[in-house]
Write a structure and sequence with these properties.
CATH topology: Hypothetical Protein Ta1238, Chain: A
CATH architecture: Up-down Bundle
Number of domains: 1
Strand order of the largest sheet: 1-2
CATH superfamily: Cobalamin adenosyltransferase-like
C-alpha cells in the first residue's frame, strides 16, 4: 500500500513533476497530459458510479471500481520509464479481460441501428462522458510516444477501455433500448 503522510511537497512549484525512479519532467510535457487525462477519466468514472446502483446494474459498478484501480496502475505505468525494470505495467491479461467483458455485455444488447448519442440514463450518460475522456487520454498517450517510449499494452488498454465504456453505457440504457440515436440531418427539416 502507498502511504502518504504529507500531501504537498513543494517540489513541483517550479513546474516540474517526478516520474517513477526519480526523474523529473515539465508538467507541460505531453506525457503529463496523458497521465492527467487518465486521472480525469478515472474521476469521470467515479462520478458515473454515483449514479449506478450496485443492486440494479448486473455488476457494472463492481467492474468500474476494478477499472478505477487499473487506471491508477495505468498512470503508474505511464509515469515509469520503459527501460526501468520492475515497474508496474499493464498486462495482456487486463486487456483480454476487458475484451471478454465487452463480448459478454454485447451479447445482450440490441443491434445498433445508428450511431449512439451520449445520453439516456444518468449513469449511461456519465459513462459516455468518461469514454470521451478516455479517448482523449488515448490521443494524449499516442502524442507522448513521439518523445517517450511507452508500454504498447498501456495504449491498447486505453483503446479497449473506451470500447468497454461504450458498451457498458448501452447496457445501462436498458440493454440499448433506451439509447439516444443519431438521426442524420434531423435538424434540417
Amino acid at each position: 500500500m502507498v502511504k502518504l503522510n504529507k500531501i504537498y511537497t513543494r517540489t513541483g512549484d517550479d513546474g516540474s513533476t517526478g516520474l517513477v525512479g526519480g526523474g523529473r519532467i515539465s508538467k507541460a510535457d505531453p506525457l503529463m497530459a496523458a497521465i492527467g487525462d487518465v486521472d480525469e477519466a478515472n474521476s469521470a468514472i467515479g462520478v458515473a458510479l454515483a449514479s449506478i446502483d450496485d443492486d440494479d446494474d448486473d455488476g457494472t459498478a463492481t467492474t468500474l471500481r476494478r477499472i478505477q484501480n487499473e487506471l491508477f496502475d495505468l498512470g503508474a505505468d505511464l509515469a515509469t520509464p520503459l527501460d526501468r525494470d520492475g515497474g508496474l505495467r499493464v498486462t495482456a491479461e487486463q486487456i483480454d479481460r476487458l475484451e471478454r467483458e465487452i463480448d459478454a455485455m454485447n451479447e445482450h444488447l440490441s443491434p445498433l441501428a445508428s450511431f449512439v448519442l451520449p445520453g439516456g440514463a444518468a449513469g449511461a450518460a456519465q459513462l459516455h462522458l468518461a469514454r470521451a475522456i478516455v479517448r482523449r487520454a488515448e490521443r494524449s498517450a499516442v502524442a507522448a510516444t513521439a518523445e517517450t517510449a511507452l508500454n504498447p499494452k498501456a495504449l491498447t488498454y486505453i483503446n479497449r477501455l473506451s470500447d468497454w465504456l461504450f458498451v457498458a453505457a448501452r447496457r445501462l440504457n436498458n440493454s440499448g433500448a433506451s439509447d439516444v440515436l443519431w438521426v442524420p440531418g434531423a435538424s434540417r427539416r
